[in-house]
Amino acid sequence: MVMEGNAGSLYGRLNRASTRGFLAYVAAGGACAAVLACFVLSAADPTAAAGRNDGMLRLSSRSARVWPDLAFNWRVVVATVVGFLGSAFGTVGGVGGGGIFVPMLNLVVGFDTKSAAALSKCMIMGASASSVWYNLQVSHPTKEAPVIDYKLALLFQPMLMLGITIGVELSVIFPYWLITVLIIILFVGTSSRSFYKGILMWREETRILMETREREEQSKAACAANDVVIDPSYQEPLLTQPQPKEKSALETFLFNLRWKNILVLMSVWSCFLALQVLKNNSKSCSTFYWVINILQVPVAVSVFLWEAVKLCRESRLRRMNGNLECVCEASIEWSPAQLVFCAFCGLLGGTVGGLLGSGGGFILGPLLLELGCIPQVASATATFVMMFSSSLSVVEFYFLHRFPIPFAGYLIFVSILAGFWGQCLVRKIVHVLKRASLIVFILSSVIFASALTMGVVGTQKSISMINSHEYMGFLDFCQ
């Protein structure tokens, strides 16, 4: 198809646009949040607040555990519907849906914030695992390659996991209102940027479809002018043209598997899990605790640098040989500056995921689009990376007894069904309509919905804390 043949160059052209405006927006938003934090902290009296509301201060940072029973009622029905839709659309967009799950589990079902975040990870893990299973059985829409870009997954996964660790620790000391402000700024920016890119893709797809129709009409008109008209359904080529061999489902599945890359990812996952278990079994703020924390940095950085050097060398060799083909789905020239930017975005995505209780896809999905990946590959790769990061958190939370097993099993089952059928339905619609921009619009909508829900919940809780005269500044990490 002409549409499929032009897809790679289409998204490459659109994503080569400058991102300085978006980066300026993020920097300005962060500066505004910092100024607001300084203003609030200067107006607050931490000593008086601590002496007056010591119990409230402790409760605001370490809330009591609340686990509702799993029973058939309207709360569970709402959680099922919202969880199914959030998992279906979240995995299609490659963002997971943690910004929707946490408020839903907290406000509707009644779980405390920490348990809601842990159950959100369970839902993200189930949905991403079923989506990865689906993506392993489909072919790349434009070329002979897996739809999951393993090179980008190896580049971002270690930094994302390191960022999640940082985000979880920052969530202990950051005031709730500041987390809300930062998330709203980031989510509104990424959703707006993704929506704008979706509009550009839609317009370009419309132009290509119109050109394709015009060529078909011209071809039909030329055929109608001939003396002999043959029904197109009975036309046979005069010379047999070589056709690409159609792969069976099993052949496609085996072709999409890259065992070497998967083993590396599993090794990184195992290292982080072992370090997290050791950290959780140690005394908070002890010497051993900080040593284990610091050991996560060389693990993540070494794997990132290993993959980054491979990408730089392969890109340089191809340019020297006159081959302009991309070394992976990202249509950029790999350089130290680009790699530093990717490392920063991976850390940022993981940090936001740790603060929010999501898998980091809210940053990784839009970032992969920004780097030039087509929507199908961006969604599949972001979901693949989220499967590792969310499953790591689920195993850690299981050892810490942070979620009820019956409720977690039920929500994982709902998310598995939603992730698979969501991918199946949306990919079929994209194939029929030849509109891959639909995936970008779904991604933008889920991020914006998460910003809306987190903003409402965060504002409500902040107002409640102000009315209760609770301390609104930074908390002590070691208390």
TrEMBL record:
Query: Does the record's keyword annotation contain Membrane?
Result: yes
Q: Which UniProt keywords apply?
A: Membrane, Transmembrane, Transmembrane helix
Cellular component terms per the entry's GO annotation? membrane
Q: What residue intervals traverse the membrane?
A: 22-51, 148-168, 174-196, 262-278, 290-309, 339-365, 377-400, 407-430, 436-457
Xref: InterPro entries = TM_pro_TauE-like
Q: How does it sit in the membrane?
A: Multi-pass membrane protein
Per the record, the coiled-coil ranges are none
Localisation per UniProt entry: Membrane
Can you tell me which family this protein belongs to?
Belongs to the 4-toluene sulfonate uptake permease (TSUP) (TC 2.A.102) family.
PANTHER family reported in the protein's UniProt record: CEREBLON (PTHR14255), SULFITE EXPORTER TAUE_SAFE FAMILY PROTEIN 4 (PTHR14255:SF5)
Q: What is this protein called?
A: Sulfite exporter TauE/SafE family protein
Tell me the organism. Answer: Urochloa decumbens
